[in-house]
Amino acid sequence: MGSFDPKQLQNMLSTARQKYDELQRKLQETVVEASSGGGAVTVKMNGQKRVLATTIDPEMVRSGDVEMLQDLVSAAFNAASAKVDEAMQSTVGGMLGGMGLPF
């Protein structure tokens, strides 16, 4: 086995920090949009899963079916969250692959 090289460890930590910073930037820049009810409810979310916008078709409000509207809002939020997860899994996998780490 080789000897411990502090410079190599420092380089690895520096690379990891750069990758972390890059990931945080990508999380902020990533924007997904998902809808439910044929577009009756639309949610726009960033990669940090912060909601940027929610749009509800006024006809859904006029219908008076609050329970259906609640279900459509939940479905749109869940779909947007799943899209963020997919986007980030792809991004993180690519970044870790570049570091030579198992993923």
Write up this protein.
The chain is α+β, with helices and mostly antiparallel strands and 103 residues long. The protein has a domain at 31-96: 2-Layer Sandwich (Ybab, Chain: A), CATH 3.30.1310.10. Helix content is 62%, strand content 17%. The protein has helices at 6-29, 58-63, 66-99; strands at 31-36, 41-46, 51-56. The chain has a three-stranded antiparallel beta sheet. Helix 1 (6-29) packs antiparallel against helix 3 (66-99). The longest helix is centred in the last third of the chain and has 34 residues, at 66-99. It is rod-shaped and about 70 Å long. It starts with 5 loop residues before the first helix and ends with a helix. The mean pLDDT is 87.
The major β-sheet equals: 3 strands, antiparallel
User: How many DSSP H or I helices?
Assistant: 3
The CATH architecture category of the domain at 31-96 equals 2-Layer Sandwich
Q: N-to-C terminal Cα separation, in Å?
A: 25 Å
Strands, helices and their partners?
Layout: H1 6-29, E1 31-36, E2 41-46, E3 51-56, H2 58-63, H3 66-99
Antiparallel strand pairs: 1-2, 2-3
Keywords, please?
103 residues; alpha+beta; Ybab, Chain: A; 3-stranded antiparallel β-sheet; 3 helices; rod-shaped
What's the short version?
The chain is of the alpha+beta class and 103 residues long. The chain has a domain at 31-96: Ybab, Chain: A.
